[in-house]
Fold this sequence. Notes:
Blueprint: H1 26-68, E1 81-88, E2 91-92, E3 97-98, H2 99-111, E4 115-124, H3 129-145, E5 151-160, H4 162-167, E6 172-175, E7 180-182, H5 194-200, H6 224-249, E8 264-266, H7 267-273, E9 278-279, H8 282-290, E10 295-297, H9 304-323
Parallel strand pairs: 1-4, 1-10, 2-3, 4-5, 5-6, 5-7, 6-9
Antiparallel strand pairs: 7-8
Amino acid sequence: MSDPDPPVGSAFPRESPPPSAEAPKWERQLIERLALESLAEQRRARRWKWAFRFTLLSLCALVALVWLWPEWPGSDSGGPHSALVDVRGTISESGGESADHIVAALRAAFEDSGTAGVILRINSPGGSPVQAGYVSDEIARLRSLHPDTPIYAVIGDVAASGGYYIAAATDRIFASRSSIVGSIGVLMNGFGFVEALEKLGIERRLLAAGEHKALLDPFSPVRSEEVAHLRALLEEVHRHFIEVVKRGRGDRLAEDDRIFSGLVWSGSRAVELGLVDAFGSSGHVAREVIGAEDIVDFTVRPSHLDVLVEHLGASIARTLGAELGLGTGLLQ
Length: 332
């Protein structure tokens, strides 16, 4: 006898018959194929994602390299040409115009087989006497190694103090009638806040080993013996500066003591005093003096990042610190 049907409303529903082994398999195959396609698509998406990331990182690295890497001068630049080296801004070991970069550019310019003459284009208010002396000495060395390659200085807006120190080492100096030339002197500056501290009721606590270690401390009273020592130091560095100018300019200098007083002069007056030989631009010197109108720039350019940092105020911060006496040093 067959089992009776369960009563209506029973909690035990009729059981479904088991799937037949003969049931079609296309549903399962379709599901498997869709699953495999989905997995393959995910793998392709991951590969493209990693490829995109790698390409993006490589591009960023390349851009960073271009931005961070300074432009160094090349060599063997072709036929006869005038080699140009720029000196712009404050001459220093780092920041502004690096003495190392100037020297590297000068060496490359002199060693280039096509260089008929070197033009040192100067637009600088001065800087460190040590760094200016480093460049001046290197010019003298390169002139002795390459006696057939002349070097001329061309002054732009200004070649004062350390800027002129470098110019004096060249064969001849050219300028514009309105250029600012000279400032043959040395300075050391700062501030004093002694009375301000007293009025504000601030106590200065300074510990130092060495009687004169706190030399020119802006919060301590000036000591006459220290001032005398520093004046002697400045006079010594000034004498070095004068010797360099006299050695470079020789009997072209006029008999005028004001030349070495620290005053500045126009290009027109500088010609009369013998500080400048003639009027002329870089193009004029290349074409009319050197005889090679084509100009090849050997200047070592700072990286874009250095320029950006400079514009964002790093140089202002350094200058402000020096003016406040936080980093007092010699300046030409």
